[in-house]
Design brief:
Strand content: 5-15%
Helix content: 40-55%
Number of strands: 15
Strand order of the largest sheet: 3-2-11-12-8-7
Largest sheet: 6 strands, mixed
Radius of gyration: 25 Å
CATH architecture of the largest domain: Beta Barrel
Distance between the termini: 75 Å
Number of domains: 2
Number of helices: 16
Shape: globular
CATH topology of the largest domain: Butyryl-CoA Dehydrogenase, subunit A, domain 2
CATH class of the largest domain: Mainly Beta
Amino acid sequence: MGCVMLRHGKDYLASLRDGRRIRLGTELVTDVTTHPAFKNTAQSFARIYDLKRSPENIDYMTYEEGGQRHSAWFMPPRSKDDLRLRAEAHRRVAEWSCGLLGRSMDHVPSFVAGMSMKPELFDANREGFGQNIIDYLDYLRQGDLFACYLVLTPQTSRGVSGPSDPNFRIVGEYDGGIIVSGQKMLGTSAVFSDEAWIGSMIPLGPDQVEEAVTFAVPINAPGVELWVRKSFEQNAKSRIDNYFSSQFDESDAVMIFDNVKIPWNRVFCYRDVPLMRDMYFKTPGHMLGNHQSNWRFSEKLKLVNGIAHQAADHAGLLGLPAIQQTLGRLAAGEATLLGLLSAQIDQCIELPNGYVHVNNRYLYAALQWCASNYHQIAEEVRLLLGAGPFIMPADDSILDDGDVHDTFESNWKLPKATASERYRFVRMAWDLLASDFAGRHQQYERFYGGPPHIMDLYSFWNAPWAERRQGVQNILDDMVAPAKKLAAE
């Protein structure tokens, strides 16, 4: 095995104490490893770093190149085997985080790896930008770094109902690069990242040249500040009462730039409006990044389905045909998604330069399926919970008090579960499916890849309509073929 270029969890945690500026309300947070709003989730990410380099996982999580071993998501794939390795790495990261860390450390580097497969697209904007992309991927890979992205413009910049207000913009140049100011969103996992990729997936207008810039910046760069939403972790009472929100709250943030200097070697697009979106969709970037998101969702779906079956079992309902039908629909949905994931690899697309990427049609079908179905899946499972969540005691203190606990065990037990087991299960299910934390995830899944209509349009744009229309035309031609034959005779 080559030299292992993989971080230890302790090194990752140390990197989070690097002078970053995070606004939690009016409070300024500089160390997320000790603050009650972030420390447990930081530990969850550190655990992933340790798990992926462990002897039992390293062969499934890494690849070797140039005598060095790197995390699989940094690899630009050249074969189905490469895609399978990347997929298994994504799946394991998702399994270790219950599918709840949507912007885990394997997400954004997958975008960058895909973009590096077509550097000439960037050189068309400015000579050397293609090499910048290749070098940046190598920088992330060598340090085994965690990158997030902020690729949405503020609503005032979109000009939907009037002139745009370019909140984020290029404000100048200096000898070594450019200067930017303003706001970018939405930085999921930004407080846990080393680097931020800044750009726009939302189409810019032809007059928005000053906003047409894509670059990378360290989270702790001078002039950068993160403003985060309310923390679910900070408000989680205990690991039992809030199992998921206490340790998998990846946070979301907007990033404020105050005359931040960006060196040229970290710039990938400059004053080129079309390239701002083309870099995602005319390279494999968007497909490799969202292949990770499909695997992440599949692990979450497996967990939700397990909760559904156990809820029905606890209630003694598994023998009812109506309940079996509900569980059957959930199982069919899981199998559908897993089939789409397999098809993405089996029907992969080969590029002329020797690279491959996942099949775009099956990728976007899966992305649309996840965004369109999660809210209904969550509702189906909440129905199976019935009134169970409302008859549970107020908190898990009843599990530790002797006399109270005895009363609880006597009155809340089920034929297939002690009262304590029932309590833990119901609290776990509620945290995932019905709490404030769960509400964030429902909204998050709905808009994971953009607004719902965009999910539909991805499949519209990637469907082989000419081929489908030709099938119709062949039948129409065949209708008149006998008459034409007779006329010819």
